[in-house]
């Protein structure tokens, strides 16, 4: 409770607009008759193709093998035949090859009762291997391979595992439904992660206003005799960011350029932990995930469990279709997500949400000169001065921008969201960061 | 493809589906924009401006219109190709300036003030967002020092001077008077003891009071205040409503406060500056304000000072100008406290009725310094590092104006 009294700096309390989809239970989206499986659903290099056009694949079969430590395996979400290999441009602008799978044949897993594996007898190394084979990546949107994150830090002073259920992008509530409905799988996944990392403490962080999740988690943690803490963080965006969450839970600050593991903390999203559970306990690769389909243009906003590779338009149709003209369709949350222009794009392991936003929801004002109001400065959760960085980058002075903290920017979007001059602050900062020479470990 | 331009671009997919806009994150925006801030502030000022027109007649309307038109014209001529009229900032400056003028001010003075505000203060620094001083205030002070007599002769409002103002007469009552604050300060300079406080002194000098003031004061004393054993002298209700000689738009405290509610509700202004300004000024006035009148400490008349000399207008509409005030919370608090302190000093010891305007301008000048020294602490940065406060020797100071402009 004390944490609620602690001052959190910056950040915003945007209208969270979650009520659209939050109360309805999850359902399984219809299995598509055709899916498009990109070989790039993670941060690193695209996976290497291991099947050919014309091949028959089984559900969950490996179709792309990780190439490099930051890459991850990709599996077939459907049984069927690979009908073509296409080239896709993903929502974030990166391109990759993708397999088109036409559904045919038997489902090996769908609807079947699977037998849990006695994972507790396995070593941490074996567990990590299973996680890698199943292609588990950070499912909060970033897509870093989990085995990489966990193995690099094992035994190097990580003493706190934070399971991140603070889903504070407006509209998005997939993790909320997951925590409510898949609580036991989540806790089992947490045990696996605990087993691998051996932290002194495990904390599950949730938003303060979600008291139902909090009490549900607390009850199950108690009933199962787990010593996990359930921690509420203020309902402020972007408290769910790794670094800010680390600070909110442990009080440790993560300096610019560092990651939470540098201060002894590993943060994993609840969807990731659930994927770990399925991978380790059922050897099930990541072929589906929970996705929020919402926004003012969607008729029945909902959270659905969808197969990877299902197209955006099918999932919107699953939720009653569009009721008005969307101005934008966004993959991910409205603060950090990407727009798409092609609704046949597939959802991937990283897609937390599909939002069809109307023009009124977006509010697009005219751009003016900076009026030095300082709203961006006061909203920045990591203490930067976005207006200054913007002006420096606008004048091509990258060195000054770096000295003023450009690399600390977590790209949360707060400054851009609140700027009355409607300056492209976040976009400029991101581009400024990308233009810098690559630094070690950011590949 | 996300990076192809800073502006959004539209695409249509081959199947004739609705075109979807592609933009960089964040994908939606708070309902706020420069023009909405400016226009909301303008609208919030209108009730008080309307009161000025009611109180001083068509002449006041003429002054307001002239100020607005010349400000907008100056902006249009200087900005030319740049589309800056729509943001409403020039109109706001003009309106504010008009509202700070005495109703009988010569019209050329109004034009001079707006030309100075827009042409010199605003545009020599590059227009909106570039200026360091608040244009309206600077314009007001410029004419104050250039034509002191013309800008400090005040007229009695119609509500006090009965029917001395025939309907469409464009001249204002030539019987000039002084503002309550002016009278009090004059008395203080003469070394008179203002026993009983400024309101009582004014009454004793035969300062006009409306019937409204008398009846409301009586009513308040008899019903509400008597229960607490309190009693107020006459003379507070008039300035609250606007029955007081002064600038066109500074008179009506209640209508200005009404507009302030709108400013807060629409998040045009934030609490930091008004709160720090008010608290500092009120505490100092209460503690030491009485000394100048020959009274004891802790007896200053905060209400009188709050209701006079355009304090409310400055507190909520001028000192909160985004452009000329600091960006960080701590900077804004310090700015507000500085204005409060200077206003108190100038009013009490400087004898300047326009103390509050000067105070804000001085603090405007300190804003770059405040921005440079009160930088936010970066996540992971040491809590107290000297260079943070000195503007950084190891790092280039982020808010150094030379880096930004
Ligand atoms: S929020 Fe926008 S207008 Fe305000 S200081 Fe920052 S960049 Fe300038
Ligand atoms: S996007 Fe970067 S600069 Fe802007 S508020 Fe977030 S962390 Fe600060």
Arithmetic mean pLDDT of chain B: 82
- Total beta-strand segments of chain A: 17
Tell me the strand order in the biggest sheet of chain B.
1-2
Number of strands of chain B: 4
> Which residues of chain A form runs of ≥5 with pLDDT under 50?
1-7
The radius of gyration computed from the alpha-carbon positions of chain A, rounded to a whole number of angstroms, is 21 Å
CATH class label of the domain at 2-24 and 113-282 in chain A: Alpha Beta
Radius of gyration of chain B: 24 Å
Shape of chain A, please? globular
- Which bin fits the share of residues in helices of chain A? 25-40%
Assembly annotation: heterodimer
For the report, how would you describe the main beta sheet of chain B?
Answer: 2 strands, antiparallel
N- to C-terminal separation of chain A? 39 Å
Give the topology string of chain B: H per helix, E per strand.
EEHHHHHHEEHHHHHHHHHHHH
Distance between the termini of chain B: 30 Å
Number of helices of chain B: 18
Structural class by helix and strand composition of chain B: mainly alpha
| Most strands sheet of chain A | 6 strands, mixed
Helix/strand-derived class of chain A? Answer: alpha/beta
